[in-house]
């Protein structure tokens, strides 16, 4: 029989698939089963109007048959089948699938490394069989035809088609599994447990039963008894033809049929999680784009959910066939902690990560999901603040990063989902903070620190609280950046109590302070000189309350930012320093002692200046570079 060549385009893709280090070979089964399911759909549809079909809905099935000796896996369906001509037409060309268009767009001839994995993400159809098989035989007979056809191919070098006597309508795809290599144990695809697991993973919700012979150990009574009278058992292996897929997915069933508790159980089972999710969102959308979704907001951080890691927790299905795990393009990164499933009949199997970004349907779905997620979070915040605070503790960081992302593009969408701890021992949104502001308060006060406890003790905060104003305590490294991105809230600007003017001083106060600085210029310069290049300025301050001194900063970078950068990944980043300002409380006794020493004992004044600076650094939560030196310095004071 003359061998026929594949069409050029198919040959290229085939080569690419077979010869590449293919990361996701196992999807071949999903592809072959999907074809079988489609073929059954077609015949089932015909049977509605054509009595001759002679099959009831319950008669349709897909069988997976393993023959280890022959090294074959057969996927059999009793669907519509193909004529010889159809087999040739359909199996001789690879549908213009995503991988080829991807190649064309990039203009590259060969996909390499990382790019190769892209192929694995979308439907590659019938040809994926060649990733695991060195020969594929298709025996098929079309409904309404007398004769069947046999199509055989060993891969890229072509195929043959011949007539074939087939008893029943439908198609057998017989895959002769490759020999094992050093890198790949192809033989595992001949194991029933493996195939069963693949059906569960990718085709669990195909709506036709997928049947396999599965071997079980069964215990039976031998009729004999042990000396003590207890019955003797023996085991034998029994092979049963089982349906290995669940067919109807839980999210496809209506809210009346499945309770929220059942959905949560499902989540915990998939998730191997202990904790209940903190929210469940069920959507049944019909309209321009139809889809069903079952989403969960996890109850704890870093849960292993439907996917291996935290990124992209939504799995995409099309009509019960899983098309993509970890679909991280569906919702923005700020909602990447959301887990669950989206199933839409409007999506095709031929979907790659590249295409996904431009897919209009998916964009619409993604936008809708985001609105629902936000709505659910707002509801939780309103109804159960404690629960929301727990959620925010776990995942607030994603929302905060979202605010800073892409130059604040999403800030207004996310703004009202942020909560901050305040000096009134509550967690509020910025909107709530502003609503609570007395008329005399003009700005939103905040203090940055490593901990709420430390923030509370800052003298600058005491000044604000004394006036009855509430303060935000920002304890996460990104918080300052978040406020910077937000810019304002309801027309109120933010005021960093450590570095900014608190706005409490009258013009007279300011003038007096300026005069005091001028009068004491020499003294302040002396202190600066004594401390050395660690400070860029020394000044008096009125906002230090009971504290003798404090360390603040001037310019764009604050001490909190510096601490953040010190943990940064590059040496360059770790070296970044804020411009430190040493502030002295002129009313404090310790400063009076320093002033006195300046007038009478310069040597002592120099030492006191250094001590003052170290104390201020400690207050600011900075590490002391040389503690031993500090201790000996203090020792000399006595
Ligand atoms: P796709 O399914 O994306 O069209 P495939 O390469 O998987 O691409 O299959 C090509 C075509 O071959 C199918 O569209 C279908 O017409 C036909 N086909 C494949 N498998 C079967 C089957 N089991 N029964 C009937 N037709 C099939």
User: How would you characterize the largest beta sheet?
Assistant: 8 strands, mixed
Strand order of the largest sheet: 5-4-3-6-2-1-7-8
What proportion strand? 15-25%
The end-to-end distance, rounded to whole angstroms, is: 107 Å
Mean pLDDT score: 85
State the total count of DSSP E strands. 22
Bound molecules: adenosine-5'-diphosphate
Radius of gyration: 36 Å
Oligomer: single chain
Annotation field: number of helices: 22
What ranges have pLDDT less than 50 throughout 5 or more consecutive residues? 95-123, 303-310
The share of residues in helices is 25-40%
Give the class from helix and strand content and strand pairing: alpha+beta
Taken from the alpha-carbon principal axes, the silhouette is elongated
